[in-house]
Amino acid sequence: MRASWATKATLPEDGTDRGTKDYGKHAAKNIGVSIVRAGRELDLDPSWTISYDPRERWWGMEVEFPPELDEIFGVTNNKQAATTFSHMVNFDWKTEAEPGESYVDYKRRLTEDGDHRVPLIEIVDYIENTLAAMRRGIEDQGKGRRGPGKRHDDTSVDDRASTKFKERADAGHAAPSDKEVFTNEDQKALVEDLVKGKQYEEAVAKEIAAAVLLRRRKVIFVEAAADMDAFFSVESKPGGVTEIVFNRSHPAYDLLIKALDAETGGATERDLVHRIQNASDAIKMLFAAWARQEVEDVPGRERIRRMRQDWGRMARDFLTDEKEE
Known about the structure:
With 325 residues, the chain is of the alpha/beta class. 47% of the residues lie in helices and 13% in strands. The chain has three domains: 2-141, no CATH class; 153-248, no CATH class; 268-325. Helix 10 runs antiparallel to helix 11 (269-296).
């Protein structure tokens, strides 16, 4: 197994999308896991990639094996593919496990049955874990960078959300943080939080904090990898600033935030439509998860129902401009 990914040096200094560069277009033609048999590439299998994700062109992976493992990998007679291995991209042991069967017991049963896929399961686990790590690393390279002509102090959704926070306070729903004033000292504290707590580049963190001071923002949207089940967290910072922190380790991040707010250079119309469709499905699945929580928690059902109603009213206020009412 070999894996590699592009260094940060491939990011243009002017903030443009590296995917639009000649080397980016070349990289887009070499996407997938390389399957190598005895030193010769059988196939560059794109099945392991996320077709609409621009990160996919910036990593490479190779799986090499000797002819003695042809049967296990499912090498075809013409030596052009390894079908058994390629089909493992859709492997999910839970769909094949017997009721109540653990992962260890499942693998033991496959071994006793002489299933040739057993040695490949470890390889699949390695590929999935390595790809997840590389994708995070590639994403971190460009986190917080602004494209040409874009500035953190431009009007954004942070300003819209801040306006709604202020409207709620003026309407008699004040919170303690509404009375706090963001100072120069708070600005320094916010930079430290973004750099040390969320691994932002210092230059980017300073731009964000300066924009908070200049535009008097009460809300900012940031991101960080977090080892927790929640898709996002809410953090109160000095100066009355509320951080909404999207968890990059949660699957909803890639399906929603990343898919809808990612670089689009080099993406085809089909790729963009695919992103939107996946995001739409992800939103519905989030609601399905809420519904299931409501169904399972019988003692707390009324409390959850009230929370759903309250959030719905708040969401209606935040999504509606006064001029539209």
